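ESCALATION

Customer reports they have been waiting on this structure for their group meeting. Please prioritize. Original submission:
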Amino acid sequence: MQVMGDSMVKKYDLIVVGTGAALTVLETALQHGQKVAVVERAKFGGTCLNHGCIPTKVMVTAADALRDTERWAEMGVKGEKPTLDWDIISRRLWERINVSQAMAKDYEQRENLDVYHGTAKFISKDTLQVACEASKTADITAPIIVLGVGARTNIPDVPGLETIPYLTSESFFGDRFLKTLPETMTILGGGPIGTEFAHSFSALGINVTLVQHNQYLVPREEPEISEFVLRSLRNEGITVYTNQSVESVRKDGEEIRCTISDRATRENKTFTTDVVFVAAGILPNTDWLDLAKTEIKTDAKGNIITNEFLETSQTGVYALGDVNGQAPFRHKANYEADIIAHNLYEEKDPQKWRWATYTNVPVVTYTHPEAAHVGLTEKAAKEQGYEVQTALHYYSDTVKAYALGITHGSPEDGFIKLVIDRPTQMILGAHMVGYQASVLLQPYVNLLNAGTMELTPIHSEIGSETVQKLRERGLVRELLPQRVQTVSETMAPHPSLNEVSMWTRYFVEGKV
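Update from on-call: job pushed to the front of the queue and completed.
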């Protein structure tokens, strides 16, 4: 039922704020007969559906298909070089985004569920006020509140940026969608978001310039993988500047003039562009919640601090997804939502509760080719005291790569690098770049997550009475590789084809 608001405080068993991964908790609560309220200030589906992984991968996959044709001749396939049709790509990505409308209608008709369209903020420790349409407000309360409010693009402090109509992933997949493509575009930020958009827009025929503040692109990857991504983007015709500060942007007639400065040499460079796209990281949406009215603690960046059970420093309030700052990926948020739902509604015995660990979160950047990793980097492993051994194997040393037209020294010749503890031969990390790296990563994700998992406190100062007892007793969870539940509890990069196998658990359990 959709609720516009009233003057009385309405009581629920559960309040969910945000309709991304947190919907998993909502669904489980409804299955267990709970009275639930859900609050959404924008579109149903969260970042992933509306301006994140789903629409971007529609673009990226089309761009990949185009770039893959560049080695057709090596495989014996000849023909004219194809081009991308922006109208078709646009239609396909908006078909996915518009699923949000059907989602909202479906939830508005569900029993035991009230839907509030508006922005929620705390007015006391356990009460939220929702600013609805037509200046109406609704006050709601529940003993359990789950915050999945996500994050938004971080806007850097660049002189003049506020004077130009720059794009972000939110506005691009919103009211500033480009129906007609510009000739030139400058992307500020060389992390996963910036590099993926650079790859996509370049394949569409736009002359792309990418400006990165760090000396490395995708700086959380191994240095040799970062260098590989840099070469790949430049091979696509993208102009890339690393280790740069953006000094200013300003309107100059119909164009935008950008000035950047090399952070090492202090040399300035000025160029013009039609469009500026900001992809300089993300900020949690905690500033909307008025957390000063609560006991919920945040870190210096505004992320809500959570423990291994996703509890916050206020009893009864949980936080998941981008807003807790652990890892900004939908598969991580889904993993957390499953844990909360399991512990709150599916398992009454705390000794069988699940808990989160973030050591082996898979990461994929969908450039061309893909970059992916799980576990420790070589540098991090050495810093943690391991006696490190590495192993590296190139695609071109395999028959399948040869069949794909990938030969030694070719631009697409990627590799897998393993970081290993020499005395025990235990895998500490797996890092790769190349064709379908997201698929090649999954066996290592499964291996690193399987086996015996001991409860390790995260932010030990946070913990309900039950959690404190569990920590004292110590919990151990056996994730046997042969069990289908282990496959599901192990994260798979979203969106990737690994999810085809991962989601079999839900059919086994009769949830589909």
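Sent to customer with the following note: The longest helix spans residues 330-346.
Escalation resolved.
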